[in-house]
Amino acid sequence: MKARVHVMLKNGVLDPQGEAVRHALGAIGFDGVEGVRQGKVIELDLAEGTSEETVKEMCEKLLANTVIESYTVELS
């Protein structure tokens, strides 16, 4: 079984990497980009029977800084 965790900064938290990407896109001619939020995707190979709750616990304890980041979990 696989899990995919999407981690993004919460709204209102400054995103300097996203701003750097937005600026760089403008510098190479992509003027229509008004904002960029950059996040991360973490893919986990899990033992059969691992629950979504276990993956959420992983996120809460290690994979996401829940003070400034939110996350979503996809199991497949």
UniProtKB/TrEMBL annotation:
Record localization: Cytoplasm
GO molecular function: ATP binding; phosphoribosylformylglycinamidine synthase activity
Highest taxon of source: Bacteria
Keyword DNA damage assigned: no
GO biological process entries: 'de novo' IMP biosynthetic process
GO cellular component, one term: cytoplasm
EC number: 6.3.5.3
Catalytic activity of the protein: N(2)-formyl-N(1)-(5-phospho-beta-D-ribosyl)glycinamide + L-glutamine + ATP + H2O = 2-formamido-N(1)-(5-O-phospho-beta-D-ribosyl)acetamidine + L-glutamate + ADP + phosphate + H(+)
Presence of keyword Ribonucleoprotein: no
PANTHER family per the UniProt record, alphabetical: PHOSPHORIBOSYLFORMYLGLYCINAMIDINE SYNTHASE SUBUNIT PURS
Name listed for the protein in its UniProt record: Phosphoribosylformylglycinamidine synthase subunit PurS
Source organism (scientific name): Marivivens niveibacter
Gene that this sequence comes from: purS
